[in-house]
């Protein structure tokens, strides 16, 4: 059985106590303010390195969407700067409930690094457990991370409509955005024809921690018929990674459409529902 892609605050603290600290990446980010370096500077898990989602985990916005995948050179440089090497165990976290941290988890897998886990419940869970917070910058030696064969799948924009017709394309945004009733971020409202809505908010409990795998399996099982493949998108390809993580917990392998809705609507000839 594969190890869980999640780690609890207690498990992470135990690794510190045993002198087996992993590389810890703070990926705090919100739609309202973007990458939250100020939050990191105000207090973070000891030894954690701040990773800027906008600059390090995404390419420049444009035809491929608001948060296209970063190129290999950018991502490798960011991981090395954060002290990540090929043999590093990595833990990623955000403020909770891991919607940004999951992007780091997915990208590390996309660039071939399998030893990565997400802090379940994020910094909020760490603080609630009574573990210490640091405010001083953490200095680490540069890592030797290299990109290797991918451990994650992507769905190309040209294949999206055929995929949605023959398989299950999940839209991870809020229901009102899926229905096109509101659109707070992108210039066009709606969704990709054939997609099925399954908000990421349904992946976690009231404390921002992932639901038990059995619960997730029951939920996703009702959306994914036997024998069908699964792909996920959201607004810009960030929170969709959270959905892919939840699907993995449920035992379902899923691909990411990286451009997501913000990339889809850059071509006015693509249909919208």
Automatic annotation (TrEMBL):
Entries under InterPro entries matching the protein: Rhodanese-like_dom, Rhodanese-like_dom_sf, TST/MPST-like
CDD domains linked: TST_Repeat_1, TST_Repeat_2
Keyword DNA damage found: no
Record flagged with keyword Transferase: yes
Alphabetized GO MF terms: transferase activity
Enzyme class: transferase
Record keywords: Repeat, Transferase
Enzyme Commission number(s): 2.8.1.-
Domain called Rhodanese: residue spans: 18-135, 163-273
The protein's name in its UniProt record: Sulfurtransferase
Organismal lineage: Bacteria, Bacillati, Actinomycetota, Actinomycetes, Mycobacteriales
């Amino acid at each position: 059985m594969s190890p869980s892609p999640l780690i609890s605050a207690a498990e992470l603290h135990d690794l510190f106590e045993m002198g087996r600290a992993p590389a810890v990446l703070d990926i705090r980010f919100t739609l309202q303010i973007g990458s939250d370096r100020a939050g990191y500077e105000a207090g973070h898990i000891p030894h954690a390195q701040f990773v800027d989602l906008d600059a390090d985990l995404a390419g420049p916005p444009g035809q491929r969407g608001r948060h296209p995948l970063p190129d290999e050179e950018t991502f490798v440089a960011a991981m090395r700067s954060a002290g990540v090497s090929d043999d590093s165990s990595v833990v990623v976290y955000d403020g909770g409930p891991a919607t940004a941290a999951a992007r780091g988890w997915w990208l590390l897998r996309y660039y071939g690094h399998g030893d990565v886990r997400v802090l379940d419940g994020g910094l909020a869970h760490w603080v609630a457990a009574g573990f210490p917070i640091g405010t001083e910058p953490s200095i680490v030696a540069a890592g030797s991370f290299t990109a290797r064969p991918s451990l994650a799948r992507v769905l190309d924009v040209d294949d999206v409509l055929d995929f949605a017709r023959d398989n299950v394309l999940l839209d991870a945004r809020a229901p009102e955005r899926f229905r096109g009733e509101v659109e707070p971020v992108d210039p066009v409202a709606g969704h990709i024809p054939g997609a099925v809505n399954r908000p990421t908010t349904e992946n976690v409990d009231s404390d921002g921690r992932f639901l038990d795998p059995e619960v997730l399996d029951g939920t996703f099982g009702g959306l994914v018929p036997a024998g069908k493949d699964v792909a996920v998108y959201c607004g810009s390809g960030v929170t969709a990674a959270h959905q892919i993580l939840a699907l993995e917990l449920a035992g379902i392998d899923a691909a990411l459409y990286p451009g997501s809705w913000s990339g889809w609507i850059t071509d006015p000839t693509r249909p919208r529902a």
